[in-house]
Automatic annotation (TrEMBL), chain A:
Spans through the membrane: 18-43, 63-85, 106-125, 131-155, 176-202, 222-241
Segments forming domain ABC transmembrane type-1: 60-241
Record-linked PANTHER family: GLYCINE BETAINE UPTAKE SYSTEM PERMEASE PROTEIN YEHW, GLYCINE BETAINE/L-PROLINE TRANSPORT SYSTEM PERMEASE PROTEIN PROW
Name the UniProt record assigns to this protein: Osmoprotectant uptake system permease
Keyword field: Membrane, Transmembrane, Transmembrane helix, Transport
Membership in a protein family: Belongs to the binding-protein-dependent transport system permease family.
GO biological process: transmembrane transport
Cited Pfam families: BPD_transp_1
Keyword Transport: yes
Automatic annotation (TrEMBL), chain B:
Biological processes, Gene Ontology terms: glycine betaine transport; transmembrane transport
InterPro entries reported in the protein's UniProt record: ABC_transp_perm/SBD, MetI-like, MetI-like_sf
This protein's name: Osmoprotectant uptake system permease
Record key words, sorted: Membrane, Transmembrane, Transmembrane helix, Transport
Cell compartment(s), UniProt: Cell membrane
TM helices/strands, residue ranges: 12-32, 52-71, 78-101, 113-135, 147-169, 189-209, 221-248, 254-274, 326-349, 361-386
Higher taxonomy: Bacteria, Pseudomonadati, Pseudomonadota, Alphaproteobacteria, Hyphomicrobiales
UniProtKB/TrEMBL annotation, chain C:
A GO biological-process term: quaternary ammonium group transport
Protein's name in the database: ABC transporter ATP-binding protein
GO molecular function terms listed in the Swiss-Prot or TrEMBL record: ATP binding; ATP hydrolysis activity
Keyword Chaperone: no
InterPro entries: AAA+_ATPase, ABC_transporter-like_ATP-bd, ABC_transporter-like_CS, P-loop_NTPase
Family per record: Belongs to the ABC transporter superfamily.
Residue ranges of domain ABC transporter in the record: 2-236
PANTHER family, per database record: GLYCINE BETAINE UPTAKE SYSTEM ATP-BINDING PROTEIN YEHX, OSMOPROTECTANT IMPORT ATP-BINDING PROTEIN OSMV
One Pfam family, short name: ABC_tran
Parts forming coiled coils: none
Keyword entries, A-Z: ATP-binding, Nucleotide-binding, Transport
Amino acid sequence: MNAGPAADGASRLLRRPVFWVGAVFLALTFGMHALAPHLGFLFPEGARLVYTRASFPELVASHALLTGAASLVAIAIGLSAAVFATRPAGRDYAATLEMLSAVAQTFPPVAVLALAVPSLGYGALPTVFALVLYGVLPVMGGALAGLGSVPGAVLDAADGAGFTPGGRLWRIELPLAAPIILAGIRTSVTIGIGTATIGSTVGALTLGSPIIDGLSGDNPAFVLQGTVLVALFAVTVDLGFGEVERALVRQPSGASSRTR
Amino acid sequence: MAAARPGGRVDALPLLLAAIALAAVAFGGFIVVAPNRLLSGAPLTLWQAQGAGAPAAVLTLLALIATLAGLRDFRFRWALIGLAAGALVIAAMALAGLAAAAHAEDAGRLTRVSLGAGFWTLLAAGLLILADAVGRERSLPGKVVPVLATGLGMALLMAGGTLSQLSLAREYAVRHQAYLHELLRHLELTGAGLALALLIGGAIGLMAYRRPRRAGSVFAVLDIVQTIPSLALFALLIGPLTALTALLPGLRQLGISGIGPFPAILALGLYGLLPVARGVHAGLSSVPNAVVEAARGMGLTEAQIVRHTLVPLALPTLFQTLRITLVQLIGLAVLAALIGAGGLGTFIFQGLGQTAVDLVLLGALSAIVLALLADIGLRGLAFLLFRRPAR
Amino acid sequence: MIEFESVTRSFGGTRAVDEVTLAVERGTICALVGTSGSGKSTLLRLVNRLLDPDGGRIRLDGVDIAGIAPVELRRRMGYVIQSVGLFPHWTVERNVATVPLLLGWPAARIAARVAELLDLVGLAPDVHARRYPDELSGGQQQRVGVARALAADPELLLMDEPFGAVDPPTRRSLQDSLAAIQKRTGTTIIIVTHDVEEAIRLGGTLAVLEHGRLVQTGTPAAVLAHPANEQVARFFGGPLLGLHLLQALNVGNRANFTDPSQVGGEPIDADASLETALARMIAEGTSRLPVVNPANGRRGVLELAELVGL
């Protein structure tokens, strides 16, 4: 590996928005504590300026952990359900799954979160539950659409070539469906970050905590700190997914030299 | 072709759900009796709460579902399973209401009878069997009738007062006035936000259609707005608006302030921009170019082209956009309560603050039902208008 | 050799393939023809067990294919379909290598085989091997499809309207390539087509299907000369059937090699079709053409009256 492509890659990265938004996000995460005392000019009423319940890196870590763990579970469930519904044995259930997901999509996330509290109590648990429940739908929707988008002729050719059912799924269907599946995962994670923010209303520790504490304690400084960070977090993750999608579309199956 | 093989396999899902429902009825707490609204109570199974008759009724319905699921396919078989599932749902609710009435009479005025895990499991199993049956039934009447019958049954139960002794209903009775007020406020917020989104989002969508080269960057910006967590977007508007009213005190007289309905409507409108703009753009773009070309070739003016070809052909998509945006905004308006704008979220967040489960349920279930009604209503309307089920 | 014995397959009450009995000899081309809905594609898909028959038996070299695992069976056969079905996320090279990879051939053998096959179907390996399917023209894609199907030296090549989606000149060139490849490799081919000319150009044997039933088999010339019934006659051109017959017969069948009188002009090959000969007569305004048999150099004459079979 010579230095050429690496340097080239680095300079290309520098030109991507994800790099800059991500850098600002990280800088504010670690610098907010130092920056906060100097924000007095924004809040002439003299509110407390430094959020003390938890440090911002802690909040970010907790937020990311909740969303990440829930997303992994949601992806596993959503993908399995979609794969099942597109196999011969599960095809009968495809209509049911699609309808359930259409119905569930109308449920307000806050309502789902609130409904989880009576059985799961306050804290991270109902948040993870709501995140999983809500995260499954876009993943499943994307995977169903993606697997459904593989042309019948390609499937026919794969069967005719003698792929085993599993081989066809792994080497033909999933790679071809990958961009649409990834778009579903991207939506799911974005919704997850948003829902986790609301999770602080049921006691989960997330970047929503300063917002909720600020709203209930009438402290605009906390609200601002929380909103800016969580917005940057969401946008960074979303842009990051965008980069992965670009790479995926540009280089199918990791082929390095695509002549055009 | 998925022709049913003779002798076909047994449909496993209804059987599995029926088995889960059976277990829930046998072992799960059907109702929970608590001395007052804040203390936790003791769960009672359906048997304990209502004697042998009630479980027998539920058992009969479950046996009916299992039998139908095991039979060979015939016309309207799934519609019948759906009807049986609907009956199961209504029976569960009625039994819960009757049990609540019986136990509320025994004890003091403060006694609260709430719904237990057994009830919720039975209800969920019934609704899932119904959904599965509707998904698999082929004929349209076979799909619609079970859903309508179940909805009608629920409405009759509520109107008839069978459920009035449940803690949820009592919570509602206590707050009758406030509930109507917040419900109306929820609708106002949603309506105003929707109007804002339709107006501006529609204009953006139209612009993106007319100038395709700018469409990419416009949607990129709207995508970012959509990416920002909803709670942050609501809260984000507080600061600037407060600063604005500090600078221009006259605005305050117009009802504009940093907290309250104004920022909520603005946030809802912003959130609706992307779906509306995308929907309008997609709807107009879905009209085949050949049609527009042909219209132009026949000498229609630009305005006539819009009126006679673009709008009628894009209408189903535009209507779908309206439905999706409305449902989304109904859900998001729940958050408005956090910035002092009221709405159904008020009950949810009050309930969460007081650990009053029934209050949370009141707000959350209302929001879900409202969103579902809007979704089903607009889907039905679209079907009547365009004779084609909305996707 | 592939044998169908009273093969039947129904879809929801209709018999798509109805009691078909047919034998295709090793090393020959058999064209399954018929209107759409006649069951010819279904019959083909029964051979590699993409479908299984409701009744009857299909034997491959005497072995009932119902006893062979579908995956194993399919790897022994090539399969080409009209919409090609190239895997869009793989390069041409990888597409062609599909079955050898599935069979676990060593890399060097696969590379050599891919280059050989691309050459065989008329694509330059150094130009096309690294391309993706969407970078090729329709005709090139179909050539890759044929190469992919031939990759593992299949005993049998199944083709379902393989050239239906390409323009006529490309189609003819693909048909010529296929005929040449078949001559070289000796692969048995079963091809489904509703294109009469394609059936005549390629088919060593025609098998005509109608509503799932096999109504006639034979050489193109035999079928066209004596269609079994009204529908078969109509399928092969109705009033224009005679013109198609001219495609099916060649000059050698009708030329006179004993007439000593010589005719001037460029002689026509005895292998050429009568259609070509007629076209030349019209173009040159003559009723006699000189003929040469390229195999033995004998010369003869073709008269218009002989050409039309008087």
